[in-house]
């Protein structure tokens, strides 16, 4: 069913140094890593970053299988990127000519690099969601956004919206599966007809789905109000997440990595 | 129409992290014209069984076979399934559109649709002239349920499965459902009624199947099934109140058969005991 296909980056519970890092640290580190990937511009830099990424995966105790499950579609995307760059990138060292297309050494390098960057980017990003529960993730986001709340950014509200959205994705997928079954029981054939017909076929699925989503939103807002929820002002936490020295160390290491990548590019 | 399940297993997320077996080695035959109640605790596999019998799920292993369908090429088209809380699947702009959906999917001609929809609405006790253009979303909970059932009946199923059709209905609605189920069966349809209300099952069904942990625990006429109090308890079920009453009277010394499962049956037993004049010590 649909739910099983969308396992990308679902939390993998384990006890590892990566799991123990504070969520806000992990979010920052992920952003730094992504920037470094695109700043680096030779194989030494890319290789080093890839090694760091793989080391992070090993330390996290998340099995490669769990990461691979969410990567299948991304790999196709990587291959496409590689092929596109391979033939489109301008270069002088022609290796092969196929009709109108010229395969150059520069294209080969650039294509491989782009594919590797994309691949590692997604690996690292899924490591973030695999080692951090959605609640920790939104808490981390709230912490990071808090300074911006002084200039009127509703940090708490954004984080709350995100966590509610994340919380209801599986519920809505489950509901969608049920609706599909129910309409199939009434003889609905979703794969029949031309495009216009197929779009029409989706009406009996989407209407109940939206009705249910709005009803659920209504129920939830009432339940939250009944529990005296009034947004972020004056709200305290049950579990206070503290920035640890290991977070500082980790962040410093990645900042160093980024600095190295920038220096390498400039020099 | 007869349905036969042989060695049916159904496993969710096979090979995945959260693999769970919903049904295990189920062997079951429901004959043409039977009226069967399927009861079981939440998570006992009742709804999975319904989906398998309707052909919406394929069993992980084993076979589900239908014999005697009027459409031998697509036998499962003769099975109607009313989902639990079916009103959550409403989508039509009008009651007519909603009910016509199934018949239209079957390939019923457009000008014949109104006839079928009218019939189906009358079967569920709704006035077609009042309901026709109304939005199904504007109806009351009980009316919505009726519209949904009409939406299945319009396809004229030979086997009809109802998954907890009385859930969330008031007393009147429950009684009406029981009557409808009986009538559908009298019309010659095979009916499978999933419920966890023991009294309902005892009143209406002539055969009761009890599921526990994905296996068939008990299968037989209500009198027999509900006499197995301890086995039922192991599946977190209790016999209907009427059956418990006559059992309790027997336990306290009344010399009665204590096989009644309905209020009427219990009344008979008690009256005949009183008439025989051999009252026990607890007069």
What is the CATH-assigned architecture of chain B?
A: 3-Layer(aba) Sandwich
How many individual β-strands of chain A? 2
- How many domains make up the coordinates of chain B? 1
Q: What is the straight-line distance between the termini of chain B?
A: 51 Å
**What is the CATH H-level superfamily of chain B?**
P-loop containing nucleotide triphosphate hydrolases
Distance between the termini of chain A: 52 Å
Average pLDDT of chain A works out at 86
- Average pLDDT score of chain B: 90
Q: Describe the global form of chain B.
A: globular
What is the radius of gyration of chain B? 21 Å
Question: What structural category do the secondary elements of chain B indicate?
Answer: alpha/beta
Tally of distinct domains of chain A? 2
Classify the oligomer: heterodimer
The largest β sheet of chain A comes out as: 2 strands, antiparallel
CATH topology label of chain B: Rossmann fold
Write structural notes for this entry.
The complex is a heterodimer of chains A (267) and B (283). Chain A is mainly alpha-helical and 267 residues long. Chain A has two domains: 1-132 and 242-267, no CATH class; 154-235, no CATH class. Chain A is 73% helix and 3% strand. Chain A contains eleven helices and two strands, in the order αααααββαααααα. Chain A has helices spanning 2-5, 17-20, 23-39, 43-60, 64-88, 105-131, 134-149, 155-185, 195-201, 203-226, 245-266; strands spanning 94-98, 101-104. In chain A, strands 1-2 form a two-stranded antiparallel sheet. In chain A, β1 (94-98) and β2 form a beta hairpin. In chain A, α7 (134-149) runs antiparallel to α8. Chain A is flat. The N and C termini of chain A lie far apart (52 Å). The model of chain A is unreliable at 4-8 (pLDDT under 50). With 283 residues, chain B is an alpha/beta fold. Chain B has one domain: P-loop containing nucleotide triphosphate hydrolases (Rossmann fold, 3-Layer(aba) Sandwich). Helices cover 38% and strands 22% of the residues of chain B. Chain B is built from eleven helices and nine strands. Chain B has helices at residues 46-53, 95-105, 113-123, 128-131, 141-153, 171-186, 198-204, 222-227, 229-234, 241-251, 263-276, and strands at residues 2-12, 20-30, 35-40, 61-67, 79-82, 159-163, 190-195, 207-212, 215-220. In chain B, α3 packs across α5. Chain A binds chain B through residues 4, 175, 178-179, 181-189, 203-208, 211-212, and chain B through 13, 16, 51, 54, 56, 77, 80-81, 83, 86, 88-91, 101-102, 105-106, 137, 151-152, 155.
């Amino acid at each position: 069913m649909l739910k099983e296909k969308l396992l990308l980056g679902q939390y993998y519970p384990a006890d590892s140094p990566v799991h123990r890092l504070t969520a806000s640290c992990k979010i920052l580190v992920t952003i730094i890593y992504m920037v470094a990937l695109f700043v680096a511009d030779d194989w030494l830099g890319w290789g080093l970053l890839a090694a760091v990424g793989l080391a992070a995966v090993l330390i996290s105790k998340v099995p490669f299988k769990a990461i691979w499950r969410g990567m299948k579609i991304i790999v196709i995307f990587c291959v496409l990127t590689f092929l596109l760059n391979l033939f489109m990138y301008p270069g002088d060292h022609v290796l092969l000519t196929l009709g109108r297309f010229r395969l150059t050494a520069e294209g080969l390098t650039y294509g491989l690099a782009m594919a590797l960057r994309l691949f590692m980017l997604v690996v690292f990003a899924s490591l973030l969601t695999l080692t951090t529960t959605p609640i920790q993730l939104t808490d981390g986001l709230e912490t990071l956004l808090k300074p911006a709340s002084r200039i009127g950014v509703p940090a708490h509200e954004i984080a709350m919206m995100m966590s509610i959205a994340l919380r209801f994705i599986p519920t809505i997928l489950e509901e969608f599966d049920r609706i599909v079954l129910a309409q199939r029981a009434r003889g609905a054939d979703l794969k029949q007809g031309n495009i216009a017909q197929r779009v029409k076929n989706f009406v009996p699925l989407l209407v109940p789905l939206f009705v249910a989503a709005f009803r659920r939103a209504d129920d939830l807002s009432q339940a939250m109000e009944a529990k005296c929820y009034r947004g972020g002002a004056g709200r305290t936490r049950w579990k206070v997440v503290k920035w640890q020295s290991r977070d500082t160390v980790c962040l410093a290491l990645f900042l160093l990595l980024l600095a190295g990548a920038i220096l390498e590019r400039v020099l | 129409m007869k349905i036969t399940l042989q060695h049916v297993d159904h496993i969710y997320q096979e090979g995945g992290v959260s693999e769970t077996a919903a049904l295990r080695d189920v062997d079951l035959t429901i004959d043409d014209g039977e009226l069967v109640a399927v009861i079981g605790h939440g998570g006992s596999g009742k709804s999975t069984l319904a989906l398998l019998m309707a052909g919406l799920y394929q069993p992980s292993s084993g076979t589900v076979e239908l014999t005697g369908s009027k459409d031998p090429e697509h036998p499962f088209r003769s099975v109607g399934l009313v989902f639990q809380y079916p009103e959550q699947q409403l989508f039509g702009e009008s009651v007519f559109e909603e009910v016509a959906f199934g018949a239209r999917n079957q390939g019923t001609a457009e000008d014949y649709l109104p006839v079928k929809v009218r019939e189906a609405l009358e079967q569920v006790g709704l006035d077609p002239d009042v309901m026709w253009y109304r939005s199904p979303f504007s109806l009351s909970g009980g009316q919505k349920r009726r519209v949904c059932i009409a939406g299945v009946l319009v396809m004229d199923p030979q086997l009809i499965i109802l998954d907890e059709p009385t859930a969330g209905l008031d007393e009147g609605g429950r009684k009406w459902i029981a009557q409808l189920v009986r009538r559908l069966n009298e019309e010659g349809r095979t009916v499978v009624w999933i419920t966890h209300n023991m009294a309902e099952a005892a009143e209406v069904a002539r055969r009761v199947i009890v599921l526990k942990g994905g296996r068939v625990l008990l299968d037989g006429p209500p009198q027999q099934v509900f006499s197995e109090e301890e086995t039922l308890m192991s599946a977190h079920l209790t016999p209907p109140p009427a059956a418990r009453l006559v059992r309790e009277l027997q336990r306290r010394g009344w010399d009665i058969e204590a096989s009644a499962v309905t209020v009427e049956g219990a009344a008979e037993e008690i009256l005949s005991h009183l008439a025989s004049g051999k009252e026990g010590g607890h007069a």
